[in-house]
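Recap from last week: sequence in, structure out.
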Amino acid sequence: MDKNKENIEIDLKRIFLALWSRAWIVILAGIVCGAAAFSYAFFLITPTYSSNVSIYVNNTYVDAQGFSSSQLTAAQDLADTYMVILKSRSVLDKVAEKTGLGYSGKALKSMITAQAINDTEVFEVEVTCADYKHAAQIANAIADVLPDKIAEVVEGSSVKVVDYAEENPVAVGPSYKKYVVLGAVIGILLSAVVVVLVDIADTTIVSEEYLSNVYPKTPLLAVISGTGNAKSGYRKGYRGYYRGYYRGYYQTTKKKEEKTDKVEASAQEASQNSGGEKQ
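Predicted structure tokens:
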């Protein structure tokens, strides 16, 4: 159990060192992906504009009897009903016809959103469009068409316009900041995963302890220090370190072989000399 825990700690340390030694790659990937996301949003996504119109739910029964909490709840429920009527095909077709901008009722439906304001009987209709002038025209056409349609469908109820829409030339989308942050985060995560996978796939020995654990019967014959540059990262230093280790091992083995060869040659020469003297 303790050995497994130690191995996990070593692996986590290795991953951290791998990310730290290649932090510049991760940072550069984040910058590049963030810039790419900004370029995509700026050059390829069409800016959108919005205009709002506020409408008050008017219940004639409430006006006649006074206001109570239950009647306020009924008025709020009517606001939800009116929002459903707003997105009906008959209303949207009339709005499209009134504006004369070439939009179909189906296209208008995807451009319109409506919601109650702070749980009151007032709801807001927002139109989002690629042209800010068209957005204002469509919103005001809704304010003109919707009251008559509601009076026709819901008996004893109607709506009153609180605020008409105004042209707003300031784009509401896309959010460049959101795209940049999202792109940078994706770049950092992907590059970090690649760095970790490359490090895991690398079979280079990265520590003396690792070598001792994996090859416990292999003697450590030589250590050459100072072969790696500390500023260039831990892995480069370890590569030089163990390159020196194996070079020292090879040289030691070669010297032993040469010494053995010399002894054998001396013995053979001595044998030959003794044979000549006898003759």
